[in-house]
Protein 1
Amino acid sequence: MLQRLIVLMGAGLLALALALALALAACGGGSEAAPATAPTTTPEPAAAFPVTVEADNGHVEIAAEPSRIVSLSATATESLFAIGAGGQVIAVDDQSNHPAEAPVTDLSGFQPNIEAIAGYEPDLVIAAYDPGGLVNGLERLGIPVLLQDAARDLDAAYEQIETLGAVTGRVEEARAVAAGMEEEIEELIASAEGAAGLSVYHELGPDFFSATSGTFIGSIYERLGLENIADDAERAGSDYPQLSAEHIVSSNPDLIVLAHTKCGGQTAQTVAKRAGWRQIDAVTEGNVVEADDDITSRWGPRTVEFVAVVVEALEEAAAR
Amino acid sequence: MTDAGRLRARLAAARGDRPLPGISLAWAFAVLVFVVVAAILGLALGPVSLGAGRVARELLSHVPFLGVESSLTETEDAILWELRAPRVALGLIVGALLASAGAAYQGVFRNPLADPYLLGAAAGAGLGATLVIAYDVGDPLGFDLRPVAAFAGALLGVATAYALGRSVGGGRSTATLILAGVTVAAFLTAVQTFVQQRNADTVQEVYAWILGQLETSGWREVLIALPYAVVSSALLLWHRRLLDVLAVGDDEAASLGVAVARVRLLVVAAATLGTAAAVAFSGLIAFVGIIVPHAVRLLVGTSYRAVLPLSLAVGAGFLVLTDLICRTAIAPAELPIGVVTAFLGAPFFAAVLRTTRTVGP
């Protein structure tokens, strides 16, 4: 009896967890059906509405410049404010904790309540994830939805920002933000040339879940020329494999990036205390990066900060 | 043996004039070999290949006067002794606890489907662990609170179910107790699911815990789990003969001078203590508590004097072998052990069931 309860619970969880793993930890695998987001019609600078863009839910037509945007995507929220469209946003979901001026509500992007969203009378809803028929439900109510799945790589992330510019009438600002990001990141990558060939272990949780090069975060390590020890786990068939501690210790990564420092409270000290982990040079030499959980699970403008932190750690590692 | 014949044998055994068969020497030896082989395989194999021969040399180098030198590097030594060995030890303990608790629950409730998670142990442990993970308690006391919360939750779940069952059925009816357990489990599971949905960002961690894992952070967990394992196993083994008496029915056992309610409380408490210690460090590992005792019964008969100790040993070896599959099947990634126990256990059990005639506690 109880066994059955557990199994049922487990099955329900499986669906949710898989979807969340995709949404939370920035995965590219989930957007197989749709090509990377890109504006199909590159709008002229004087963005005239109506405008049609392509998102992960297909062609989306926006009739007029929206002034009541609801963002259920923490990444999109950051991008909207970065491109100066923050004034058009009336509500963001409970995970959107940046920037501080974003109008946080108790709307959930993971378990969205369509009625509650419609109650804000939005003229555009932006989501990173489509659980429980969210997109269909809103479209049936005549509310346009822009679905932007986790980006697969940096180019896809820039394109998402430009798409947000197109739908908010802020084409120029969005282009400037995306171009600025690209310039800074390329500069950082170029400065870390000496680090190519070093290996990295990206830790998502205390159970040694990691991210392969197939993920957004992994694509950044790839661009830095790092070898990702999670890539050895291709037999797991997942971009987020759970690694064996034995594998991590014997791989002896040059750099460890902890992506659960706020939620999970892991630090370089707690890692050093783990049994057997003193054998890892990164631990004894202090090449453990305590990254910001929020930034590493999103693919917005603050990605620059993440790349800067990693590059700094790589330079320190190279200097040792 | 007919039902009437079995009953006569049990009553006779309870009076002490004709004992039910205990463990035969052959079975004891076979099971001992099984456990030792499982442990050696668990040490020799893993996602990092150390080489069986070199592991053997390392083991022998710790035996004095042999003069064998280990050829393992410092890192390999750490992998073997700080990562792999504690995991094998935890597997032995958890497997033994779950299987013996399962056998005990089946006996005390005279229900072949009873398992260690009956009476709300799993649901309570799940709620405790989920609360700690979801509200990000961290380690304010200098250690991981997850096992503590899971342990407390399991005990709370069973205590509530037991109190509820007693208040309704007066401790006489096993059916009332089981219904109370299901009720408590459903309630606790609902709370657990609610907490988890409110904290969607930690769902993967909760999920990983619920499917079970034997990954340890060294010997400390093993040393903490060990005293609970010893107390629980000792109490259950001590009562194995009384379980044989209970099997004939509450009234019959009472007429033979057994304090039924007291024995039941003691056995339930001992099995729950073991279950709570197991889930605290390994999460919810399904099926071991059902399949191992039944497989043992199909092989050696239904006397708890044989079933209980053999289940304990077979459970230990079984879980180490299962964990070996989890560690190596898709190495260097891991499989959740709860999935593997059920995936392998169910067909194995079905095969045993088909090749034998009798089943039941």
Protein 2
Amino acid sequence: MRPILANSCAAAATTAEARYRLPILPQATWRSSRVVALDPAAAEVVRRVAAQPWASATFYTLAGTVGTGTAGTGTAGTGTAGTGTAGVLYTLDDAPYALAEVLPGADLAVLVATSDSGAAMAAAIGAECRTRSIMTAGLIIGEGPDRVVSALRPYARVLMVTRDEQDVAEILTALRA
Amino acid sequence: MLRQDINELLTRTGPGTAMGELFRQYWIPALLAEELPENDCPPVRVKLLSERLIAFRDTDGRYGLMDEFCAHRGASLWFGRNEEGGLRCAYHGWKYDVTGQCVEVPSEPEDGNFCANVRLRAYPLIKVGDILWTHMGDPAKRPEPPEFEFARVPADQAYSSKRWQESNWLQALEGGIDSSHVSWLHKSGLRDDPLFKGSKGNDYNLGDMKPFFEVVDADGGLFVGARRNAEEGSYYWRITPWVMPSFTMVPPRGDHPVHGHFWVPIDDENCWVYSFDYHPVRPLSDTELQAMRDGYGVHNKYVPGTYRPLQNKDNDYLMDRDAQRRGESFSGIWGIAIQDASLQESMGPIVDRSKERLVSADAGIIKARQKLRRAALALRDEGVTPPGVDTAHQRVRSAAIVLPQQESFLDACRDAVTVRVGQRQVSV
């Protein structure tokens, strides 16, 4: 066996010395993220999360008016949406965007649900994310919804079923959104 | 990514720290029972949660765990004599019983009160299974003894070992929650290790290197389900339970014994990894026991006479680059346990999590950190008893199962992930 020299040994003298790492390149510190609330209660959660500072996360709901449970009309904000409610997401100030406009450039999609009402759209977004190779995560708050879990299962690399809405912010923070 | 202040909170476990107080709510492994094999045997130095302690077994078989240092002038009681119902300091003969009470000060009058007023801090030490457990918190809040199944099955159905890991406890625990590394780091073990090989589940494991994960809250911690493709229309699920603060189980393979770990802080830069194997319904075979003693499975080989792994950072874990090149071992390091230890120790004594780049597959780790932080702060600020103290939370199992694609793993596996005395593990 070859001898292990001091300058190549894994041992380090102190925690501080062992902790030292070359500086992280600035362009790699955040991840472009899309957060989509799949039902009205989830939209309330997402609205609270969106109030925190984020590097590169944008937030959407399925309905034009948060909390009403009514789907938007699909009026295009940019002139290219309006493909029907199944393909439209709304920013938190109610601007509609086609799903195809929202996803380009995203590294991560986080879908948030508290009920099964958004199951169909969950599957549609998940399928689109897979087509575009966007990492997808689903957060289901509460243990009731199961159809939305089933809808997301084929697409979401991670599904988290949690009792705690703060997990949305935790995940986004941990993933550098 | 984790803020540095939260990293500090989670990794510091000494007296007076939030996480240290959390650990002090639980019964935690202090020693293997084999370390105190008989009455009046030599005492053992034990460092736990940054406290230096001495463990001994007195003339009547009572276990004691107390301050390592004599109240007189601070000499270590490790040099002492364990005799006639107590541990006597080798320096001036002061003697203590298993409660830490000083029972004799030879220089003082025999009928004086002096020694009655001398007492070392001491903690209870109880034998459950082949482990000696201690509770280092408030005696008034001492929970019921641990109920983990591995420690409750008949003695011939279980085997435990421990090894010193030169890293903070949390990065070791996180390896137990993260099952996505198994298909990579441990792939040779799935083929060759006598305690792993031969199960149908291994084929699924090796056939799908990109598992999907589902993380579900549990009363005592989490269940993390890792899903891989099985036959058409079905998924192979591996379900890992984590019970707070630091108990994890590895999903089983075939009829091999089930294994798991307890990750216990020695101090902030070292931890004990207790590794166990047990079978819920049958004795371990001689072949299995020999394999465990030989360092296979979750166990390891030792520097003789110690609990330090034979492969350690001072010898680069005896890495074999040729074996790595030939594909016999993904990392070139022999043994599943040390494959983990080598990488976790390479992160440094306390990894700086503000610099990490997590991916969504790390959701179990993210959630575990959050639960630990929440519990530590709730205990500190409001006195809330943390999850995992209740012994009902400890009656969990890991499981491996093939399910139709539309089925939720936890709905389908409620029974499988719960201890059912006398029933075998659910395994593939």
Protein 3
Amino acid sequence: MQFLISVIILGCIYAVLAAGFVVIYKSSRILNFAYSDMAMLAAYLAVTLTQLLAGPPIIALSICLVMGFILGVAIYALVIKPMAGEPIFSTIIITVALGIVLNAITALGWGGKMESIPLGWSQYYLLPAGIRMSSTEFIIIIATIVFFIAIFAFYRFAKIGKQMRATAENALLASQRGINIYFVTAFAWGIGFFATAVAAVLIGANYQVSLNLGHVAIKAFAVALVGGMDSVEGIIPAAFIVAATELIASNYINPRLADAIPFIIMIIVLLFRPWGLLGTEEEIERV
Amino acid sequence: MRKKTMGIVMFLVFFSLIFMGHISILDAADPYVIGYLTDITGDASDNYAPDSEGFRVYMDLVNARGGINGHPVKVIIEDGKSEPARSAAVAKKLIFENNVLAICGLGFSRSQPPVLALAEKEGVAVITGYTGVVGDIYNTKPGSISFATGHNMHPDFHTSAYASARFIQAVKPKGSTVAITGFATPGARFWRDLQEKWLKGMGYEVIYGEDIPTNTVDFSPWVNKIAKISPDIYYGIEGSTQVIPQILALEKMGYTKDIMIPDFTPEGDLIKGMKRLVGSGEWILWGGRWATAYEDIPEMRKIKEAMEKFGYKYPISARHFNGWVIGRIIEEALTRAGWPCSRSKLISEIEKTNLDTRGLTGGPIQFTPTDHHGPSWWRVYRWNAEKKALVPAMNWFKIEPKEIAKKFK
């Protein structure tokens, strides 16, 4: 049972991480390779804000999430939007460079110091069947559920959410129908960075914040591909499949295999279903 | 004509004076160039970045006092990023472009082989706080360039493995069960294997041993196993970014038996970890070759003052002590070597080191032409929740390299 809890916690973290990746891809068709460095920067920002601001950590963390949204929009406006009309390959390379720059900024600014993010509630609980859970783990599960309900509701009910779906399906048609696709894509980048910040806070609270944080964030890429790059729904099964197989490998086969497992799963899924578990086949043709 | 001759003479005298002045200015300003290769970023940065700060702060102090033999010390700090290839590349730059007299730091065992090979070829002294998986620190042969001030992970005489077994002996009775995990690096692997051998010889049962990849973030696979088998003591040979989350996860799993970690987890990180514990944390033991920043040592106060004067990034720790002491070794060797100093001259002066660390270690640091490690003193501390500090759990004990090597055979 304890193993199951580990799978759920890791799966939740992977799901939120991958959501940021998918939201950005869905709207802008860009594989954002700066993703893991964005997560690291967001985590260190959260650390600084919780240290600077007195009062319950929720205030500092909320500010961090808002800052994440603004940073996402700013990155789109400054780096991605000017590349509109250029080959997509160039834009993807730009995200690689952006990642290196963000990594350097984080290393310079925070010196790679080990930190953690307080959530203001620290307790352990012994549940039936000998299961042990921490308050942070409860928060991770609740935050993931709330996050996904919000994101599904956003795509389904919010006007900008519907516009994002329309832009994702056909940007040209969407723009001809009067949708400001730049605004919509900027908003998607904002949500993408917001999701990254949520995941970074959860990782920083449950594990620690260090320059190693990027190692876990990079697994979001594998989860997103397994679920389907254009499918927010696909993220959830993909995240739990990846988390379960990773932990099976590390618990029962060899822990040194753990890091490779998400990518082995990714290769297997791509070989048999290149568009991912719940992605659209047409999407791959377009890519 | 006379006027013209006088003009030429005046011109020559003027230029000669300027030239001589220039030479003397150059002479006074020419620095001793020392490289410090460490891991400011990368997997091992939490262990080694504070070392470089201790060294830099000491050298800032030396330069503020007027340098050594009238010459400033120029310290070039390079980041090896815990990557062997990168470390080798920056070592090459330090040796060939910057013409350094010595390289200090170089803690990460994985990065040592390529750097030491290059340094040995070029005859550049390397003083590490963590030597070494290669080289002949003990039973040193002529031409050897590597020196060690901290732990030692040489497969033939692994002081850290022996000392950590002795630490366990000091706090746990014979017959106790032990679990050991370590960084998936050559040095930690030697450590784990040899510590296990020593412990078995001392009458302990090692019931779990495993490597942990350096970039691991989720430790539940290891932690769940340790909590399940519940050894009497768990020893983690990892840096703070690995060890602290494990301590927290083990507490969550209900494991609050003794957990021992080496002194390369900086105390600042340990404090941060302690704050996250729900319980008292009195099951945490921390030990190695260095005193802690919790002890009231006059030399530690000096380091603190210097850090405040010259600026610092990391909270004061035993890692700073190591960098500081390496700085003192370099200062003494350069003072003896005079000006100008060659690489070989510096090596022979470092070989005369007999440094009183003024309480930062249990005894002096001594090097000779046939021993680049010397005797070392070790001690383990336990976290005291009331004092909010690490307090000694035993007295310092001495390890003679030859004694250990003999026992290995």
Protein 4
Amino acid sequence: MDNTSLFVVVLLTGLALVILGLTAAILLSPKSINFQKGETYECGLPTRGTSWMQFRVGYYLYAILFLMFDVETIFLFPWATVVRQLGTSGFISVLIFVVILGLGLAYAWRKGVLKWT
Amino acid sequence: MAEQIIFYILALVIAVFSIMAVTSKKVIRSATYLLFVLLATAGLFLMLNYYYLFAVQVTVYAGGVMILFIMAIFLTHKPGDEFKTKMNWKVKSSAILSVLGLLLSGYIVVANVTRIINYVSGKEMKMQELGVTMMGTEKYQFLLPFEAMSVLLLACIIGAIMIARKEKNNVESNNDLDK
């Protein structure tokens, strides 16, 4: 069997497994329809208000910090594959890169962004 | 053949979820559909053997930028259930504009298709080569822009904190509002 037909067989088998499983679940499972079933469950008590609330800005700042260091990681990634080949000079350049970004973390720390009150 | 099937599946996913992201009335759902679009785009990069772009797409876009979007949505007051397109002329004019944009970009793609094929060689871009190019100081190597990137990111961090966080004496009243 060549590659393509093998691929098609795997694809169709995967689809069939999902469809068969879901169909079997629909056919075999007991059914009950009532109003309470669709309600939000919160420790058995009736819920108050909507689930939508405004989050504090602290979460957003954490997200921004995460994104920045995420981008930093992606720049370190190609270096990590050749770290032995580049040796000390590469390590020093990366160290400068990380230290400059560390200043940003230090600034955030100093400004109390990391404090959770 | 197998590659073509995967490509068409990815293209279908991108097209369908792009439209759903724009037409969905609930903003969190739009963000989720956008996440699927970004992941499918990552799959396209993987098919072209662009492993670095794949990693960037998954970590930065599907990971970081999506989290930022969702946090920005959480910051808003209302979920936007009552969002209705009252301004009909706005919808019409933007539809005309997007069709014009599609025609323009389609014309550019069709006119330059031979050159684009040259760029997209499908040749594997090795991560090791990228690393050497990024860290080297020779001609066509980019150590200085690499270091400058860290300064740019630093500016982003400080700018974001400056904008999002008020000065000390305003912090108390700000927190009260948040609760």
